[in-house]
Amino acid sequence: MISYMRVLFVHNYYQDLGGEDVVFHQEMKALSEVSGYEVFSLTYQNEKGWKGLWQFGWSAWNIFAAKKLRDAIRRIRPDVIHFHNTQYAAGPILIRTAKKAGIPVVMSLHNFRLLCPSATLFYRGKLFTDSVYATFPWKAIRNRVLDHSFLKTVLTAVSYWMHRKIGTWKMVDRFLVLADFSKDLFVKSSLDVPAEHIVVKPNFVNIPAPDILPERQKNYLYVGRVSEEKGILELLNALKNTDYPLRIVGSGPLEEQVKEIVNNTPNFSYVGALPKEAVYTELLQCKALIVPSVCYEGGTPLTIIEGMMLHTPIIASDIGAIADAVKEGETGYLFQPTDAASIVHAIDRFESDSTAAHQIITARAAEKAQRMHSQKRIMALLQQEYDQVCARNT
């Protein structure tokens, strides 16, 4: 075990700030507060327009991005390099650059891009898993699964396939995934990485336990990106002919369509995006949080973890990593994704349970969330993996 460790975090920012960017900063800040660690960062930025197209074209083997990392290694001399996103201004070549310098490599997998160019395993309103077990994602290319673009899809597919063939992914000492479901999917896939090299390390959430739980209002709550894969349209369709009131917090590509539906449905209200503290207030006051995702999430959505910690009842899709966290009748209520009748039936079950039953379920969920997603536990897991990969490379 190294008594003093220099850790270099490497991350490729998306064009628009997303959850991975937030986790990158959160994790880096938390580690910097731990005695015995010196934390550094190296970042890349995806651009728009012609510059972005140039970046995408170089993404398979970006020698300029590699030089930037080599310079940082010479300057910082890290004991371990922790990669988050590398798509697309950085690229997988950075892993080879790190290993050539003799530095142990840890990589967080926030999505499924190593298995499919879509990264979400979702296309045109449905799960798309054809690439998971394929040696080359031909069907993904034919369907243009990445931004409906043939060029983007084929460049990403060829890049990740090439790095698989030349052994880049096997150079990663430890992959960190966010949930058991995700690990199982990667292990069974055609990626061909040993199961022992993939470790479950969830994200952490810092929310103090509320001193007093306020009286809950009558409305149900949706919090999240207003987009197809999050199942917002399925939720609206399921509830539009019921009396259940729904508040929608968030923004995204379906915003205008959602606003139009809300304007014609008396029991719906659209709030838009809110700052985190205001979201916590919404979670504390709502009757229950509904999470209708129709895609595989990389891990348990942060909104579910936050809701659990705030003793908010959770009603969610029985799909992927969500089902790892929410257990029917134990820590929440589940329904079949895209099934309107199942969504309504889950809410009916919740409504028919007593207040005492709700309190038992939410208390159990809060205990699980605090135990599994505390900063102390997650940072201890991270430090353990750093120690192991460093010991393995000495």
TrEMBL record:
Residues 213-362 form the Glycosyl transferase family domain. It comes from Sphingobacterium corticibacter. Keywords: Transferase. It holds the Pfam family Glyco_transf_4. The keyword Transferase applies. Gene3D superfamilies: Glycogen Phosphorylase B. InterPro entries: Glyco_trans_1, Glyco_trans_4-like_N, Glycosyltransferase_grp1. Residues 54-206 form the Glycosyltransferase subfamily 4-like N-terminal domain. The lineage of its organism: Bacteria, Pseudomonadati, Bacteroidota, Sphingobacteriia, Sphingobacteriales. GO terms for molecular function: glycosyltransferase activity. This is Glycosyltransferase family 1 protein.
